[in-house]
Amino acid sequence: MKKLNILEGPSGIPAIALGLMHMPALAKDEAARVLANAVDLGVNFFDEATCYAQGEAERRFGEAFPLSGLSRDQIVMQTKCGLEFARGVFDHSKANILKSVDESLERMGLDYVDVLLLHRPDLLMDPEEVADAFDELHASGKVLHFGVSNFSPMMIDLLKKHVRVPLVFDQMSLSLEQSQLIDQGLYVNNLTTERSVDRDNETFNYCRVNDITIQTWSSLSYGFPAGGKPGGCFVDSPKFPELNAALQELADRHGTTKAAIAIAWITSHPAHMQAIVGTMSPDHLADIVSGADVTLTREEWYGLYLASGKYLP
């Protein structure tokens, strides 16, 4: 498994992380096998959030982890806070951040998390409160590293004006089919396509300039219809025949699977991103992980980009 060393963050983490949003669908023993299998495959970085099944994803992890045979020092645990759907708010107040971390640790049966992300922007965020919360969590040893999710450059700069600890991750949507995070740079100043629209204020390049590692969510997904939910997985979907043909050709060439090649498209990029996948199937994860060790050529990378429906201007 390709490893990433995050400047001022965790070192030696895998280029693929396992998101645990769907873990509540599994029984405790099944969930334990998923965790152990992931670590066996080199995927020892797990991504959670307080809002996943209203905390039940963290709780199921907490029930499964003692059954997995794994020790705490074998895994890197990340969770996210701030999405309070039951209250109808996003909340990055100091009180809520501290409360959320304590509740996450209790649900997961852990003494600390390796990484805490602010889960999407809170329009009422007070950066000084966030700074105080982060300082307290870091000093107590409850959180080792910090970051954000879906934050734009100016939002990050606003935080960095006050936050004393480094912000080492920004978790953003990116896949072969949903590539708007990187599209605009190619189509800049082009009035003939919507892809020239800057939708995120150059977040991608900002993170690269400032040594913030991008974690990609929905790494194998397509479409975001009303409600903001991914449309599904494009691999093997009949909606994307040209893309799947291109994926199959490269899978055959590299001796791997289409899903692995789709992940390799992300992990081959020189931005050194970490791809998050959400499968709870040990077999599917095994199909995917070899992608982190495939380095696509420039021609292969652009070939997939074009097969996903884009063009070179």
Task: Write the topology of this structure.
Elements: E1 3-4, E2 13-14, E3 16-19, H1 28-40, E4 45-47, H2 56-64, E5 76-81, E6 83-84, E7 89-90, H3 94-108, E8 113-119, H4 127-140, E9 143-149, H5 153-160, E10 167-173, H6 180-187, H7 203-209, E11 213-217, E12 221-222, E13 232-233, H8 241-254, H9 258-267, E14 274-277, H10 282-289, H11 298-307
Parallel strand pairs: 3-4, 3-14, 4-5, 5-8, 8-9, 9-10, 10-11, 11-14
Antiparallel strand pairs: 1-2, 6-7, 12-13
Helix pairs in contact: 1-2, 2-3, 3-4, 8-9, 8-11
**CA-based gyration radius:** 19 Å
Mean pLDDT: 96
Broad structural category: alpha/beta
Could you tell me how far the N terminus lies from the C terminus, measured between alpha carbons in angstroms? 35 Å
Descriptive account of the structure:
This protein is of the alpha/beta class and 313 residues long. 37% of the residues lie in helices and 18% in strands. The protein has helices at 28-40, 56-64, 94-108, 127-140, 153-160, 180-187, 203-209, 241-254, 258-267, 282-289, 298-307; strands at residues 3-4, 13-14, 16-19, 45-47, 76-81, 83-84, 89-90, 113-119, 143-149, 167-173, 213-217, 221-222, 232-233, 274-277. Strands 3-4-5-8-9-10-11-14 form an 8-stranded parallel β-barrel, surrounded by 4 helices. The radius of gyration is 19 Å and the shape is globular. The two termini are 35 Å apart. 44% of the residues are buried. The model has no long low-confidence stretch (mean pLDDT 96).
